[in-house]
């Protein structure tokens, strides 16, 4: 006997991303958004989570530049890492791209984009 | 009930081994050297140890590995691993186990050969799927993010962060066992290589080898041992998140919960603390913990440390061994905080001895500002 696959919230989230969609979980009862995806609302345990398409808009909460040795051609290999507060009220780690990493500022408005990182679909952000 | 542990158990022995560089020695060899040194300090024997508390960065089942190596069969064992604060958690758990009669002689031990094993941060901590794709340098990135937020909200500057490193170095210069010595100025910290903005390499802790251990018994037995007992007054832990992206507010750590609870259990007010041993993996840590533990208001930590407040001769003695920044930091540093607190409370700290020293607050941090465990230790005069 074989058991049919029953993808959990993490697998579902990644499948949406692979389709080019940034989806968030939301409690039907309380309206609270949840990230990262879970089987229930953390802390209160409601299991009434549904998938909702994210607006994609957010604000930089914290930011850093990871300093690296320059590339062989002399160009900078430094990259940004930021925590982004999505307008839905959840926070995620990501990168702000499209501007020099040191020019990313806390409070800056950003918009999500789905990019391929190491062969997998991931969320990155550009200045909005 | 937590209050009932006050003064019931004591640290009776401390030991260290391989501080700085210990080429050719394995982590468990260093750990065992420190354990035997701590037992010798107490005047106790290995055969008397019946409680074992340990965690390392290289052993999946630390009490099994350490128990086997030392050849002890503990009646009670605890391998809690919450990162660098594990050993403050072990102190609390040992106090509970001793007082409840689950063991009579508790050994807490740690060892690492991180520096000579490659100089990289050694950890078997699992990659976090919601952060790993962005290639954070764990734990550095997390502390840099927290520092960025603190600077943004409270006007904390890189100069203020640098003051923490300069104070730590000044203490290290008084400690024969400290690894990083020599003069250090704010300007030199600011000019050092940036690694993850706003943190430069001198805002980051050392990568050293080293081992530490301590031995505890109930207070009745402690009085008859070789060294003056250092009493357990209270301890408490708090954890609010695992990964930095899940931390509710990057400028408020769970020390804001563990600190007041530990002080309440100890029956001590913050103004009575003579020595604060605060886990300084990065300069921002000291500032956050000074605030969260109540030494200064939230947001004022940067201004608090300016002008040598926490340096030798300053208003508050902080990290008198030189800290993780300038004394020793072999992966997990929490047990070295306890060793320094005991050294100071016994009056054995030599040139860096602070007076009076009857109450020490020891604050451990683990993960990425994740686990916070505060312990309060005191001399016989506090009972």
Write the layout of secondary structure elements.
The complex is a heterodimer of chains A (128) and B (383).
Chain A: H1 9-18, E1 23-27, E2 33-34, E3 49-53, E4 57-66, E5 79-86, E6 91-94, E7 109-117, E8 120-127
Antiparallel strand pairs in A: 1-2, 1-3, 4-5, 4-7, 5-6, 7-8
Chain B: E1 9-20, H1 27-42, E2 51-54, H2 62-70, E3 76-78, H3 86-99, E4 106-112, H4 140-154, H5 158-172, H6 186-191, E5 194-196, E6 199-200, E7 209-218, H7 219-222, E8 230-239, H8 255-266, E9 275-278, H9 283-292, H10 301-305, E10 317-318, H11 323-326, H12 334-346, E11 359-366, E12 371-378
Parallel strand pairs in B: 2-3, 2-4, 9-10, 9-11
Antiparallel strand pairs in B: 1-7, 1-8, 4-7, 5-6, 8-12, 11-12
Helix pairs in contact in B: 5-9
| CATH fold label of the largest domain in chain B | Peroxisomal Thiolase, Chain A, domain 1
Query: With helices defined by DSSP (H or I, 4 residues minimum), what is the helix count of chain B?
Result: 12
How far apart are the first and last residues' alpha carbons of chain B, in Å? 17 Å
Give me the oligomer status: heterodimer
Query: What is the fourth-level CATH superfamily of the largest domain in chain B?
Result: Thiolase/Chalcone synthase
What percentage of amino acids of chain A are in beta strands? 35-45%
Which range best describes the helical content of chain B: under 10%, 10-25%, 25-40%, 40-55%, 55-70% or over 70%? 25-40%
Average pLDDT figure of chain B: 97
**Based on DSSP secondary structure assignment, what is the total number of beta strands of chain A?**
8
Estimate what percentage of residues of chain B fall within beta strands. 15-25%
- What does the largest sheet of chain B look like? 10 strands, mixed
Structural class by secondary-structure content of chain A: mainly beta
How many structural units, i.e. domains of chain A? 2
**Spatial separation of the terminal alpha carbons of chain A:** 51 Å
> Structural class of the secondary elements of chain B?
alpha/beta
Characterize the overall form of chain A: globular
Q: What does the main sheet of chain A amount to? A: 5 strands, antiparallel
Count of extended strands of chain B: 12
Helix content of chain A: under 10%
